[in-house]
Write a structure and sequence with these properties.
By secondary structure, this protein is an alpha+beta fold. It is built from 21 helices and ten strands. The protein has three domains: 223 residues, no CATH class; 111 residues, no CATH class; 138 residues, Heat Shock Protein 90.
């Protein structure tokens, strides 16, 4: 039976509210002299404990909570009077008002608004006249308690019901409820002050108090967000809620300094969390993330757990955590989480950049080795076919190959970013290139005027070797499939250009559009080598492009930017 009751408690919340108001109505209708008033109020308090939105109605109360509730109810019933009833109804009014804006459904909000109107009418038109001992007004308000207010109870019961979500059913705006309670209390006490000091009748005193309060609220609403250059009360109130007496600005300063000093996410997180010790309300803190875990200070029974992606923080406080402190904690966690995630992204970017550098360096070295092996193959072929000339050819080419082997070995032993930027006079590089490919049937330029402009020019030799070797090797491979095509090399000045052209078939349009821009899979080797060469050329302030692509005229050009 208890399980069935607790399981269906949330579904009967509207009927609990109706029963709660009905018992209250019967109690105040019977009056203080009736023997049934206190039993009805005891029933009313029991229904309130089931309906109230402060704790879940199906949860078990601790012995201390039971003693507190029982003691407070017993004291209130023993010293029961109209003042006690007035403050109780004002408290109910503030609790109901604190839940109005938690609901978006029209009928739900209408039920709570009618309930607020009922409680306000009971307080101002029935309890207050008895409280101030006004027999004439009590007689006038008799029809209200006999007929009008019961009609409002029936209206509350007839409003269509909609099941409240569990997380919404317990929502109470504490600040709004407190303001409503103070406002209603001020109306009662203000009316009493008018009646006592100005000797006004109750209704005149009530209207005067309401008019003054309305004027004050109008002025405060204007001061909250003015239009005449004054910043208003809203920033001051927000700053009070967010600051709550803590060195928030100092914590932000330390957080930004730590962010600038530490690049490792784990070290940054540990250092940033140590700055929480400067908050006086914090007794301890525990954290857990993918980068590590730990704790700070001492734990307490007042705790709040906040999560931001993979960062999980548990805050321990010396005192019970208020709603403003909870908002403060969530803000601190969000700021710390953003800095922490930024550090993790920076580390991932560094790892990606490191892997990309390793990949590019490995690709370049692979192509250097491939080109060098091709040169050795060419030398061995020449030595076999032209034994009489092999001695002089080997004497010319072997020092060049030895130099390139030493350069590759140096890169493999200790990669240095500046090693790829080593320069060499263009004339020396050009002579070495012609010697390497002198037996491959290439057409070389003989314009002395053009060469004269290159006497003082220095070039990044590693990049030029990569571009020239890839373009010439690809053209030579193409000649194996298409015998008889011509491969020519030309130079240009102002700006410098190195063009390698073949008279073979055009590159297919689909391949030509992606060539030099991405890695291509091709049986001719038109892929990784050219892609890496093009990227390398851009880094050295050159550009490598396919400038002509027609049958009989396919040309690649390296140009100084």
């Amino acid at each position: 039976m208890p399980t069935f009751f607790t399981r269906n408690l949330s579904r009967s919340t509207p009927w609990l509210a109706v029963a709660l108001l009905t018992t209250l109505h019967l109690a105040i209708w019977l009056g203080m002299e009736s023997l049934w008033m206190r039993p009805l109020l005891i029933t009313h308090i029991g229904l309130f404990l089931l309906w109230q939105p402060l704790w879940r109605g199906e949860s078990k109360l601790r012995p201390g909570s039971i003693l507190f509730i029982g003691g407070a109810s017993l004291v209130a019933l023993l010293w029961l009077n109209w003042w006690v009833l007035a403050f109780w109804v004002a408290g109910l009014f503030s609790l109901v008002g604190g839940r109005v804006f938690a609901f978006h459904a029209r009928w739900q909000r209408l039920r709570y608004l009618v309930t607020m109107a009922y409680l306000l009418a009971v307080l101002l038109l029935w309890i207050a006249p008895h409280q101030f001992n006004l027999p004439l007004i009590q007689g006038t308000a008799g029809n209200l308690i006999d007929f009008s207010l019961p009609v409002m109870l029936v209206l509350i019961a007839l409003i269509p019901d909609r099941k409240e979500p569990a997380e919404v059913a317990q929502i109470v705006d504490f600040i709004y409820s407190l303001l409503l309670f103070l406002l209603v209390t001020l109306v009662l006490l203000g009316s009493l002050a008018f009646m006592t000091l100005a000797h006004e009748e109750y209704f005149n005193a009530l209207l005067g108090t309401l008019f003054i309060l309305a004027a004050m609220l109008l002025i405060l609403s204007w001061l909250w967000n003015p239009r005449l250059g004054f910043s208003g009360l809203q920033p001051l109130f927000s700053r009070y809620l967010l600051n709550i007496g803590t060195p928030f600005e100092l914590w932000l300063k330390h957080l930004t300094e730590t962010s600038q000093q530490e690049t490792n996410p784990a070290i940054f997180l540990e250092s940033a969390i140590k700055h929480f010790s400067q908050f006086p309300w914090l007794s301890g803190l525990a954290w857990n993330s993918d980068e590590g875990h730990g704790n700070l200070g001492t734990a307490s029974k007042n705790r709040v757990e906040v999560t931001d992606l993979d960062l999980h923080l548990t805050f321990f406080s010396h005192m019970r955590i208020s709603p403003s402190t909870l908002l403060h904690i969530q803000l601190l966690t969000r700021i710390l989480g953003n800095f922490y995630q930024a550090k993790r992204r920076e580390q991932q970017l560094r790892e990606i950049a490191r892997l990309q550098a390793i990949y590019e360096t490995g690709s370049r070295l692979t192509h250097d080795l491939k080109n060098m092996l091709q040169s050795l193959l060419s030398l061995s072929s020449v030595a076999q076919l032209h034994s009489d000339k092999s001695q002089s050819i080997l004497q010319q080419q072997l020092p060049v190959l030895s130099q390139r082997i030493e350069l590759i070995m140096a890169k493999l032993k200790a990669p240095q970013p500046d090693s790829d930027a080593a320069t060499l006079p263009f004339v020396i590089w050009w002579d070495g290139l012609r010697q390497r490919y002198q037996h491959d049937g290439l057409l070389w330029p003989d314009d002395l005027n053009v060469f004269a402009s290159f006497n003082d020019m220095k070039i990044p030799v590693a990049m030029f070797d990569s571009v020239a070797d890839n373009l010439i090797d690809n053209a030579c491979n193409k000649r194996l499939r298409e015998p008889g095509i011509r491969i020519s090399i030309s130079l240009g000045a102002k700006p410098f250009t190195l063009r390698i052209t073949d008279s073979g078939s055009a590159i297919p349009d689909g391949v030509a559009q992606q060539l030099l821009n991405t890695v291509m899979v091709s049986e001719d080797g038109l892929g990784v080598g050219l892609y890496q060469a093009a990227r390398w050329a851009v880094q050295m302030e050159y550009s490598l492009k396919l400038v002509e692509n027609t049958a009989g005229q396919v040309a690649f050009e390296l140009r100084k930017v």
